[in-house]
Specification:
The protein is an alpha+beta fold. The chain has ten helices and 13 strands. It binds adenosine-5'-diphosphate and magnesium ion. The site of adenosine-5'-diphosphate (ADP) has 13 residues, from helix 1, strand 4 and strand 5.
């Protein structure tokens, strides 16, 4: 067998598991999946490029983990139940054969560490060679058709603004690594092994108006919600934004650092004040902390308030591949 097929049928196909709705998985020209009776299919795709989204020397396990996790985060923000994934691997030639097999095995170990608990089955993909290591993943999930949508465009004036988990840990880990320092284990985990908020996303569906996942930076992603919801605005209370102590210390240099760093993969959502108790109970049931960090306003623009003062916004609100 060719090296490509050896990778697919030795390192990938044997570890992916099965699913009652999967009629035909890896091995033919395309996969066959039976359709559920009702509901909507939810699909998303994200690409990770070595040197842009992860360090080229990053462990294959972490890359496999993150490649799937960031995709599932997009499904989480839609309240979807993840089901299947497609994986396109572009491997550099210099990862010669033995190493390629080892790299892909480790990649799949990290992938499965996320896929298994969330019940995601890899049903196909593509394997090719490219000068730069890159990974594209498509994820497929379902959402009950009866549920209301948590779209970016459905935020309402006077909604509370909430965020899950804590913000800025991955950003601090990256900043430390870029300056040649070692982040602590906890910070490194936030950067390399994010956990998609799948359970929380599904549980929030009936309670929330708008939601998205924070990948480019809290402020940048919030601005997408505000823009999509008709140019409304937001007030953020800096002290309320959940951050680890070391992230707060990092923010002594610049209060915006954690808010523009990105890679958080937390859920940012807006909901009517009437839902406060229900949201707190839901979050507790999902064992995922959530925090109210601000509110949405009829007046457009974002106001970040710290110590009772409105901070002037930085020119760059988050990560943008076409500006850096
Ligand atoms: P084709 O020639 O029809 O494009 P390929 O040779 O690319 O098929 O792939 C053979 C089979 O292996 C297909 O079922 C495809 O979905 C699967 N496959 C290829 N690469 C991957 C991968 N990286 N992950 C999962 N499945 C893969
Ligand atoms: Mg192909």
């Amino acid at each position: 067998v060719s090296p490509e097929f050896s990778l697919i049928f030795k390192q990938i196909a044997p570890v992916v598991g099965s699913d009652p709705e999967l009629v035909l998985g890896i091995g033919d020209d395309a996969a066959l999946v039976s359709l559920p009776e009702a509901g909507e299919q939810v699909l998303a795709m994200d690409t990770l490029v070595a040197g842009r989204h992860f360090f080229p020397e990053q462990s294959a396990y972490d890359v496999g983990w993150k490649a799937l996790a960031v995709n599932l985060s997009d499904l989480a923000s839609m309240g979807a139940v993840p089901r299947f994934a497609l994986l396109s691997l572009s491997l550099p030639q210099h990862l010669v054969m033995d190493q390629q097999a080892m790299w892909v095995s480790e990649f799949m170990r990290g992938w499965q560490a996320v896929a298994q608990p969330f019940g995601v089955v890899l049903i196909g993909g593509d394997t090719t060679v490219s000068p730069t290591l890159s990974i594209s993943v498509t994820v497929i999930g379902y959402r009950p058709a009866s549920s209301r949508a948590m779209l970016r465009q459905s935020a309402q004036v006077d909604d509370d603004l909430w965020v899950s988990g804590s913000i800025g840990s991955a950003g601090l880990a990256l900043a430390l690594l870029l300056s040649g320092e070692m982040p602590t284990e906890l910070l490194a985990q936030a950067l390399h092994r994010p956990l998609p908020r799948i359970a929380l996303g599904q549980a929030l569906l009936p309670l929330v108006n708008a939601a998205m996942d924070v990948s480019d930076g809290l402020l940048a992603d919030l601005s997408h919600i505000l823009h999509a919801s008709g140019g409304i605005g937001a007030e953020l209370y800096w002290e309320e934004i959940p951050m680890r102590v070391e992230v707060k210390a990092w923010a002594d240099a610049d209060a915006f650092l954690p808010l523009i760093a990105g890679d958080d993969y937390e859920l940012l959502f807006s909901a009517s004040a009437r839902q406060r108790d229900a949201i707190m109970q839901t979050a507790q049931a999902c064992q995922t902390p959530v925090t109210r960090i601000g509110r949405l306003t009829a007046q457009s623009g974002m106001k970040v308030i710290k110590n009772g003062q409105v901070l002037s916004l930085p020119s760059r609100l988050g990560f943008d591949h076409f500006q850096s």
